[in-house]
Design goal:
Structural class: alpha+beta
Distance between the termini: 28 Å
Number of strands: 19
Largest sheet: 6 strands, mixed
GO cellular component, one term: cytosol
Protein name: Diphosphomevalonate decarboxylase
Oligomer: single chain
Radius of gyration: 23 Å
Family: Belongs to the diphosphomevalonate decarboxylase family.
Catalytic activity: (R)-5-diphosphomevalonate + ATP = isopentenyl diphosphate + ADP + phosphate + CO2
Shape: globular
Function: Performs the first committed step in the biosynthesis of isoprene-containing compounds such as sterols and terpenoids.
Helix content: 25-40%
Strand order of the largest sheet: 8-7-11-6-1-19
Strand content: 15-25%
Number of helices: 12
């Protein structure tokens, strides 16, 4: 058994932070439900973990009587098959861990008998279509792998994260990431690869309009299943449309070609939601506010004759808007604040979060500045102008960011180093 001199009361911990990601070529539909194997490749941007990430602390101790997990401070059951698969696969690959300073040695064979405590925290809403499960499972697997001294590379670890939540595999890397669907029946070649790191295209600015942070009515898991079973369009999308788009999107990213990137991202988002509508019964992830945001971007892009902004929506109403540079992002922020101003009782500092410096770039420093915004030129002559006060809960301004990191500062750990229980 694990040794520590004559004592057996010790706790070994690891803490990690993993980002979320937003797909610009969407994953929708599985060919194997158990292994979470997709029917097409997908491509995503990893978002800056400072603004959107999961933090997880995993601890092991001979005093723990069972595996336990807490999410955002609340204990949740670990009995679910997805959690069990991730734990099983990481334990299988565990190696010896020794801490000479604390005189602790965990042998490879001990991991099957030792129990773990896991605490995870998302710094953004869970299950609202912001890929919280992607960040969560990526962080769970990454942190457990660090705790158990797993030697496999991130690509291999991504195929374990995939078994928790499909898109989690893409959160094992920063920058621009492709999830290759793979061909093997066991899923061993269905994993994430990095197309370019976060330094490749640093001009991009991402603004997320959080239309609703409520849990969605149709989960992605059941939505996909229903689409694969009932949509006549999904086969054509997976077999014909997506493979061509993936090649074009890889090229657009490699060349930092924003016009092509934007056209592909918007088209693929719209087709994903069309496939949801083609499902029986139809699935509605977007709402009226989502549609108004699309119209705002489409009118602007059309009036300029070239894409100013790309939009993409996952399985939820929240808009992810990508601008080619700060200047365009500031003009977008003005348009968004004009059309979707906050309620009077709102506070500007909580209405725009993340990289708040975008407000200065947009010339907005107070609620009065929002009231005084002029309608943008592309709608100026189209009267009356409607403003939809309070329809957007808040905005997050962020950028393309890095992959998972180990947090060595013990004050950031979510579990107590003595008891192994949440702080």
């Amino acid at each position: 058994m694990a040794e520590k001199g004559s004592e057996s009361e010790w706790v070994v911990m690891a803490t990690g932070r993993s980002p979320t990601n937003i797909a610009v070529i969407k994953y929708w539909g599985k060919r194997d439900e158990d292994l979470i194997l997709p029917i097409n490749d997908s491509i995503s941007l990893t978002l800056d973990p400072l603004h959107l990430s999961a933090t997880t602390t995993a601890a092991v101790s001979p005093t723990f009587s069972r595996d336990r997990m807490w999410l955002n401070g609340k204990e949740i059951p670990l009995s679910g098959e997805r959690y069990q698969k991730c734990l099983r696969e990481i334990r299988k690959r565990a190696n010896e861990v020794s801490d000479e300073k604390k005189r602790i040695k965990i042998k490879k064979e001990d991991w099957d008998r030792l129990h773990v405590h896991i605490s995870s925290y998302n710094n953004f809403p869970t299950a609202a279509g912001l890929a919280s499960s992607a960040a969560g499972f990526a962080c769970l697997v990454f942190t457990l792998a660090k705790l158990m001294n797993v030697k496999e590379d991130l690509g291999q670890i991504s195929s374990i994260a995939r078994q928790g939540s499909g898109s989690a595999c893409r959160s094992l890397f920063g920058g621009f990431v492709k999830w290759t669907m793979g061909n093997n029946a066991d899923g061993s070649d269905s994993l994430a690869i990095q197309l370019a790191d976060e330094e490749h295209w640093t001009d991009l600015v991402v603004i997320i309009a959080v239309v609703s942070s409520k849990q969605k009515e149709t989960s992605s898991t059941s939505g996909m299943r229903e689409t694969v079973q009932t949509s006549a369009l999904i086969k054509h999308r997976a077999e014909t449309v997506v493979p061509a788009r993936v090649l074009k999107m890889e090229e657009a990213i490699a060349n930092r070609d924003f016009a092509s990137f934007a056209k592909l991202a918007c088209a693929d988002s719209n087709q994903f939601h069309a496939v949801c509508l083609d499902t029986s019964p139809p699935i509605f992830y977007m709402n009226d506010t989502s549609h108004r945001i699309i119209n705002l971007v489409e009118k602007w892009n059309h009036s300029e004759g070239t894409p100013q902004v790309a939009y993409t929506f996952d399985a939820g109403p929240n808009a992810v808007l990508i601008s080619p540079n700060r200047k365009t992002a500031a003009l977008l922020m003005q348009r968004l604040l004009y059309q979707f101003p906050p309620n009077q009782e709102s506070d500007l500092t909580s209405f725009v979060v993340g990289d708040k410096s975008i407000l200065q770039d947009a010339g907005v420093t107070s609620m009065k500045d929002i009231e005084n915004l002029e309608p943008p030129p592309e709608i100026k002559d189209k009267v009356p102008h409607q403003r939809f006060t309070g329809d957007v809960s808040y905005f997050i301004c962020t950028r393309v960011g890095s992959g998972p990191k180990v947090l060595t500062d013990e004050t950031l750990a979510l579990l107590d180093p003595v008891t192994g229980l949440p702080k």
